[in-house]
Every structure is written in structure tokens, then in C-alpha cells.
Amino acid sequence: EVQLVQSGAEVKKPGQSLKISCKGSGDGFNKYWIAWVRQVPGKGLEWMGLIYPGDSDTRYSPSFQGQITLSADKSISTVYLRWRSLQASDTAMYYCARIGTGYYDWFDPWGQGTLVTVSS
Amino acid sequence: EIVLSQSPDFQSVTPKEKVTITCRASQDIDSNLHWYQQKPGQSPKLLIKYASQSFSGVPSRFSGSGSGTDFTLTINSLEPEDAATYFCHQSNSLPFTFGGGTKVEIK
């Protein structure tokens, strides 16, 4: 059974860079697409992008294209979400989630989330 | 982009009552619609995939129906532990989108 464990909460200042991680355990991590989802506190869910750890193929939401970079290190079953220059509006909980089969599919399981706070 | 409109935004329900949540897509998405439950402080959990298929381990009181543009999540005989926010999600086309969520409160 695959489990996704995300890196811990971060507090950053505007303009700083950040990279958070999502590590998979169990068989087959590198054979499934992984999605990233943003949730602003008290708000809904927004799909940001997805990545295939096996070859780092990526797809981005137009809302996040150019603002974030997804990457993967298949040797350690880990995917990453990176910002070059954070803004206060990036304050949110970020989840990774495995996609069922292919990438036009349901999301499960989800990681526990990484809370990112951007404040001066 | 496909817009998913969920209703109601909020519902206060007594235990054992039936709950119905709807999700309407802005265009035909076949059965590529999934439902999630998110309890406070937790990650979302998959309940229903492909509009009507119950996910492994999900209690039988949760069911889904619909296809095309109109979908329904039903909770038969609500339990206190069902207090949560429920989201629909379409995987028919990129960018994937979610409904705004329905918060279910237990009276």
C-alpha cells in the first residue's frame, strides 16, 4: 500500500525560495502520476500540476504555470514542489496525492499536507 | 476550464437523516467525477470514483450517481463521524478542477 509523507511546515518571507517534498513508500511509486493540490486556509481545493516520477514528465495548471516547478528523484521515490520567489498569497496548505491510473483519474492516497506560511 | 458548481455550500443535519449533495459541471464530463471527504485538520479522502463506484473501505451509506453534467453524492443515515466538507473533482480534462465544497454539520 502506497503512503505519501510530506515535508514539514515552513515559514518564509516574501521573495524567498522554497522546495517542499513528498516521499512515497510502498511498491510502484514511480509508476503512478503524482498531483499537487493547494488549499488556502478555510477554502477549497485547487489543482496545481502533476508529475510522473518515472521520467519527470509534468503537466501544469495554467493558474500556476511559471510560478512553480515540479521535479522528481525516482531513486528515492520523492517528488518536489518549488517556488523561486514566494508571495504572501502562496500561504496555504499543499497536498500531494497519487493519481489512480494514467493521469485522468481519481486522487488517492493523499499526503498529510505541508503548511507554507509567507509573511514579512 | 470545466467549472464544478456544488450545492448546498452548507448543510446542518441530524443523525440518521439523509444528505444529498449535488455537483454540476459546466460541460459534459461523462462519468469522470469523484467525491472526497475532508474532516477538519485532515487530508481529503476518496469516497466515490467515477461518479458511482464506491472506493475500498468506504461505508455503504455513501453512494454516488449521475453522468454528463449532473452528479449527486448521497449519505444515507448520517453518522456523527460524517461531519466534514465534501468536494467533487473532475478528471475529464486538464486543468483538473474541484467543486467549492459542501460543509456538513451535525445538529
Key phrases:
heterodimer; A: 120 residues; mainly beta; seven-stranded mixed beta sheet; four-stranded antiparallel beta sheet; 11 strands; 0% helix; B: 107 residues
Would you give an account of this structure?
The complex is a heterodimer of chains A (120) and B (107). With 120 residues, chain A is mainly β. Chain A is built from no helices and eleven strands. In chain A, strands 2, 4, 5, 6, 9, 10 and 11 form a seven-stranded mixed β-sheet that branches. Chain A has a four-stranded antiparallel β-sheet with strand order 1-3-8-7, with no helix packed on it. In chain A, strand 5 and strand 6 (57-60) form a beta hairpin. Chain B is 0% helix and 50% strand. The mean pLDDT of chain B is 97. Chain B is globular. In chain B, the strands form two sheets. In chain B, strands 2, 4, 5, 6, 9, 10 and 11 form a seven-stranded mixed β-sheet that branches. Chain B is built from no helices and eleven strands. With 107 residues, chain B is mainly beta. Chain A binds chain B through residues 35, 44-47, 59, 61-63, 95, 97, 100, 103-108, 110-113, and chain B through 1, 32, 34, 36, 43-46, 49-50, 55, 87, 89, 91-101.
Secondary-structure class of chain B: mainly beta
Largest sheet of chain B: 7 strands, mixed
Which range best describes the helical content of chain B: under 10%, 10-25%, 25-40%, 40-55%, 55-70% or over 70%?
A: under 10%
> Over all CA atoms, what is the radius of gyration of chain B?
13 Å
Assembly state: heterodimer
Weakly predicted, low-confidence segments of chain A: none
Rg of chain A is: 13 Å
Label the overall shape of chain A.
globular
Count of separate DSSP helical elements of chain A? 0
Tally of helical segments of chain B: 0
Relative strand content of chain A: over 45%
What letter string, H or E per element, gives the SSE order of chain A? EEEEEEEEEEE
SSE string of chain B, helices as H and strands as E: EEEEEEEEEEE
Distance between the termini of chain B: 37 Å
Low-confidence stretches of chain B: none
Mean pLDDT of chain A: 95
